[in-house]
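Researcher: Good morning. I'm working through a list of sequences from a screen, and I'd like to move beyond sequence-only analysis. For each chain I'm collecting a predicted structure so we can compare shapes side by side. This is the next one on the list. No need for commentary yet; just the structure.
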Amino acid sequence: MKNMVDKEFVAALARALSLELRELQGTSVAVSEREAKPAQPSPQAVLSLLLYEELQERYGPLMSGMVLVKALGYGSADAFRQAVSRQTVPVAVFPIAERRGKFALTRDVALWLAEQRLAGTN
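Model: Good morning. Structure tokens for this chain:
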């Protein structure tokens, strides 16, 4: 059974796509609704949404431990710990009271993975 994508994430993606469309149209050029083509989601938005759905289904809203280490591409937990201490982890990580380790939001990981994938195709 597939989990529903949370509404806040979808709304954030819709806002980002709307801003992209406005930037493409330019602020000084007014395009009537009849002339405007339907907004096509950016490849990053589509990929991040697909990744988010899959990661959310597998791991839930938070990622931690070796799942987070591997998703971010670190070779070991020690390499991840070193990145945390140097503050070079590419997504926001945070502690949770009464829990061991660091945590990251699944949506942040999905967005970062999509950015990395598409940056590699240029």
